[in-house]
Amino acid sequence: MSESTIVVDHVHKRYGDTVAVDDISLRVEPGEVLGVLGANGAGKTTTVEMIAGLRVPDRGSVSVLGLDPRRDRAALSQVLGVQLQQSYLHGALTVAELVGLYRTFYPDPRPADELLDLVDLREQHRTRFEKLSGGQQQRLSIALALAGRPKVVILDELTTGLDPRARRRMWSAVESLRDETVVLVSHAMDEVERLCDRVALLDAGRVIALDTPAGIVDRACAATLEDAFVALTGREPEYEEDAA
């Protein structure tokens, strides 16, 4: 049996008096798309930021392809692509300039045109980042995360703020990542059901269910994943309005 691509072992993270992640353990297998689902404040983003090496666990350990996200940051950056909710990119640079810059970070990057087509931004290639809509900025951040042909991809709220057409385009982009291991943080039930092999359902910093989407529905004796979410967490799922 192949080794797990990502191993999260009894990880804790606290901010002051608030426990964001409380003894989470996860394994993500090669080629798997793992969905991370939970209400706001459930610990989703903190968990994936620790996997990416952007935050340090207070206790526990994380391994990605056998690498420590903090100690082996340079090596990990060559095999890990990360798209987070907030993009911190130079506003004066154009789409083409940002794609060109990110491609220089890797020995065998994806062609620029392929990246722009993947996220449907070819027509905006001369547009400065600060002039893009929120949805276009989100799509660009996804292209940049995929620039280096990563073996592991973290996508945090992949389609937040995107219109229905753009959402479907992003789903197709994820489905094209057939050999990569993907961690997908999402609040969108339809997205999770379509894209994810398994789902980790988080509540109050803990994993309360880990199964296929259908398995979680069965466990909750529910009709849909949304009904299962409500039954298992006691919370209503959040929804975002489209922002192109």
Question: What characteristics describe this protein?
Answer:
single chain, 244 residues, alpha/beta, Rossmann fold, 6-stranded mixed sheet, 3-stranded antiparallel sheet, 31% helix
Short structural summary:
With 244 residues, the protein is of the alpha/beta class. It has nine helices and nine strands.
CATH topology of the domain at 6-79 and 151-233: Rossmann fold
**For the CA atoms, what is the radius of gyration?**
18 Å
| Largest sheet strand order | 5-6-7-3-8-9
Largest sheet: 6 strands, mixed
Poorly predicted ranges: none
Number of helical runs?
Answer: 9
Fraction in helix: 25-40%
Q: Class of the domain at 6-79 and 151-233, according to the CATH hierarchy?
A: Alpha Beta
Structure description:
The protein is α/β, with parallel strands linked by helices and 244 residues long. Helix 8 packs across helix 9 (225-233). Strand 1 and strand 2 form a beta hairpin. It has a six-stranded mixed sheet, sandwiched between helices. Strands 2-1-4 form a three-stranded antiparallel sheet, covered by helices on one side. It has a domain at 6-79 and 151-233: Rossmann fold (3-Layer(aba) Sandwich). The protein is built from nine helices and nine strands. It holds the Pfam family ABC_tran. Keywords: Antibiotic resistance, ATP-binding, Nucleotide-binding, Transport.
